[in-house]
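Quick check before the chapter quiz. The format below is the same one you will see on the exam, so make sure you can read both the input and the output lines.
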Amino acid sequence: MNTADLAQQNIILRGLVGSTVHGLALEGQDDRDEMGVFIEPQEYVLGLGHVEQWTFRTQPDGVRSGHGDLDLTVYALRKYARLASSGNPTILLLFHLPASAVLYANDWGHRLLDSRDLFVSRQAGRAFLGYLRAQRQRGMGSERARRHGKPRADLGEQYGYDTKYAMHMLRLGYQGVEFLETGRLTLPMPEPVRYHLMVVRTGKISENHVLTEAGELERRLEDLLDTSPLPASPDRAAIDRFLIEMQEQWWVWTRDRDDQTGGTS
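Here is the expected output.
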């Protein structure tokens, strides 16, 4: 069975992510980013098979997505859990989607969403800080935009720096602060932060001001790594128990399903 069929036949959760769910999209300019989770068949976990994710893009590899294009990544449950336990900011979004952004969820998908507290820890704060720091050091100027693709170079030429890149850099800082303080992410982003980030995206704030603000957010994150009420790391034993139970029950259900339909998973 090819990876696309395997992922689609075993999907448990799919949701809308990216600028739209953050409330930071500009009409007629952004692509559509989606993320999902599937459970690998038993032979892929216990046997020789191996699959971690399936990716579908409207555009071919190497071509930047544009308005109306779809970028979809569906992760195997075990890989998704590994990334979530490490605090990956993009992966954690799926746990905090508003109901309107959840495109599909079966019983196992809802159980995964309900498990989000298992993955809450200061480890996520380190990940947010790492991404913010790397992006701030990489810079936002028009030369950077040219190196990373012509469409974004247009922003550098128009505003003097890549304003979309800058917006997402600051977003990481604000979301990291919120997560370390509360263990939650508000989606779409709350006001007035959302409005402020849209002002950045539309080039109404100078690059120097944005870099200064990024530095302030970096320092807030550094402080919160010591003062946050969140546990230092997730309970890996509890996550293991959850994953084992989810997979075992899924395998029983899919065997019964396939016996009734005469198909194979």
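If your answer matched, good. Confidence is low (pLDDT under 50) at residues 142-152.
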